[in-house]
Amino acid sequence: MQIKVLSNIDELWDDVAEYADNCSWRAGKNLAKQMRENDFSDWERVFAVLDEDSIAGYCTLRKTDCIPNVTYTPYIGFVFIGEPYRGSRLSEKLIFSALQYAKELRFDKVYLVSDHINLYEKYGFIKIDEKLAPWGTMETIFMHLT
What we know:
Elements: E1 2-6, H1 13-22, H2 27-36, E2 45-51, E3 54-62, E4 75-81, H3 90-104, E5 109-114, E6 126-132, E7 138-145
Parallel strand pairs: 4-5
Antiparallel strand pairs: 1-2, 2-3, 3-4, 5-7, 6-7
C-alpha cells in the first residue's frame, strides 16, 4: 500500500475524482465535483491510498470544511476507505499522512468534522466544539496537534 499526495496537476487526480464519484459514500460525489472544478488552492491536497494500481481510499487536507463561520484551519476531510480494504488501518495511514503534510506546512493543529463517536479519538483527536451543520445535524469538531 502506498499513499500519494495529489494536486490537480498529478496524473492520478482524475482517477481519484472518478473513484470518489462512484464510491459507496454519497459525499464522494461532492469531492469529485470539487476536484473536477479545481476547487483546491495553494497547499490543499487529496491523499490517495493505492493498492498497486487500484485506489483503496482517500482523504483531503483543506482550508475549510462544512461548518461555516469558524476560525479553525486546516481540516482533514472526506476520509473514505473502500469496502474491500476496511479493517486494514488504511484510514489511520491516510490521516497520519495528512497530519505530517500539515506539519511540514508549519500548522501546529489540524481539525476534523464528524458525527462519528469513538472513531477519530483513537488517532489522537480530541473534541473541541460542536456546531450545527448546514444540513441540520450537530457535528463535532475535533483537533489534533501535529
